[in-house]
Amino acid sequence: MEMTPPIERAVVIGAGTMGTTLAKLMLANRLSVCVIDSRAAALETCRQKMDQAFAGTDVDTTRLALQTHWSREDESSIVIESVPENLEIKRAVMSRAEAYCDPATLIVTNTSGLSIDAIGRDMRHPERLAGAHFFNPADLIPAVEVIPGAVTTKAALHRTCTFLERLGKRPAVLKQAVPGFVANRIQHAIMRECLSLLEKGVVDIEALDDIVQFSIGVRLALSGPLLQRDLNGLDTHLNIARYLYEDLERTREPSRLLEERVAQGWLGAKSGQGFYRWDDQRIEGRQRRTREGLERVIAVAMQHTHEEKGSDHDASK
Ligand SMILES: NC(=O)c1ccc[n+]([C@@H]2O[C@H](COP(=O)([O-])OP(=O)(O)OC[C@H]3O[C@@H](n4cnc5c(N)ncnc54)[C@H](O)[C@@H]3O)[C@@H](O)[C@H]2O)c1
Description:
3HC_DH_C; N-(1-d-carboxylethyl)-l-norvaline Dehydrogenase, domain 2; binds nicotinamide-adenine-dinucleotide; 8-stranded mixed sheet; about 325 residues; 8 strands; single chain; 3-hydroxybutyryl-CoA dehydrogenase
């Protein structure tokens, strides 16, 4: 059987929010990484963030290359496209990728929900293109949704998953692509209902956040919704679904409340005002504590899942 060599080099396209944490993930896992961005300033910021993140550690940051131009790549490289969520920009990147990569180079797109087939429409070899949807920050969050296009080969999906596992990730393969994939569909379903409850005046902002965080939020850190419903009882869930669904928000349009806030420039932390008020100090503190907190929550969630797997195994003996 023909053997494909292991991936030794990651080429990340786009040095933005995601590209920077992707580079961090690669370096922390001792991989060479080349980050390509059309803006030199974005590359400079990426360099500063890597120096900051790995100062005083044994991580070799000389494995990081920052370029505004492409280099030739072979099958020991993976290209991870992480440019803005715009079909034209992503298609242009695919065309550059094909010009510089040999046909066996694996290419993945970090799109949050665009069609993989639409991104690969003009490619000569779209069979080696898959979706690999990371979550922010990519160096911390374990899950990665892996999405096949209509012509993606099983071998390309398998290579993508093997690569992700080597990075310590938990790749989960979708059977087919749907807009927003899985996680964003669920996140938007939750937010549609949250915004509807605010609009109807059922609850205020702080109370809503408190209820969600300290009820379903903390539970979801330990088990997925289906496993949780098993423990709760499917009959109980059905009884509630029977009377509740007719009252849930079903709008096909984004919430008016959201439209109004964005129209008046209330974009969240980056504009100083969203649902809450923000200043630089508050943002910095929140980001630092969130990162530290996430590390702890992820460790607890991993440990819990590990113990559960062990006890399931014991029970089946
Ligand atoms: N931000 C998130 O939370 C998040 C989470 C998961 C997935 N994503 C997805 O990841 C992708 C990137 O998102 P982001 O938030 O990092 O965007 P971003 O705007 O922060 O960064 C994009 C970078 O791409 C660069 N760029 C633009 N055109 C380019 C080109 N032709 N060649 C090279 N570089 C180019 C820009 O200069 C910019 O630095 C999007 O598809 C987004 O949907 C984002």
